[in-house]
Specification:
57% helix; 2 strands; 140 residues
Length: 140
């Protein structure tokens, strides 16, 4: 019997947790690959190797990758996919872990993704006109 491939398994994940669009899972996977490339470790003999990425490192990678890929539209693209906060990234990661599309260490936890950063402050506010950025800050 043939093992299910990524696409087939991903389809089952999306069906089991419809809070997140298929694109959200693909995005998180791409952000993980982006993050892994940024933190390649030099190993014995000068060889660079991919190492495990922590939840906090992945959140930083998600932030950077989303801004690189989507710029001012990042907030809206992520929102369209159902990603509204860093905890959503954690839920997506652990859905992928549960389906064996990603692996984790014993130290990894969904709590690693709690209170990472505010999506409005990170993805939307920097692109607002200065007058609107100041007005929102003063009303908090």
């Amino acid at each position: 019997m043939q093992e299910p491939d990524f696409e087939d398994t991903l389809e089952l994940v999306v069906k089991s947790d419809p809070r997140y669009a298929r694109g959200a899972y693909l995005f998180v996977r791409q952000a993980l690959e982006f993050t892994q490339q940024k933190i390649l470790e030099e190993h014995k003999g000068g060889k660079r190797v991919i190492r495990h990425v922590s939840g906090r490192e992945l959140l930083e990678g998600v932030r950077e990758f989303a801004l690189d890929e989507f710029g001012p539209m990042a907030f809206f693209v992520l929102e369209e996919w159902g990603i509204h906060k860093t905890e959503d990234v954690g839920d997506i990661v652990f859905n992928l872990v549960d389906s064996k599309l990603l692996s984790k260490t014993d130290d990894d936890s969904p709590r690693d993704f709690e209170d990472g950063y505010d999506f409005y402050e990170t993805f939307k506010k920097p692109f607002l006109p200065k007058s609107k950025r100041e007005r929102r800050s003063n009303t908090k």
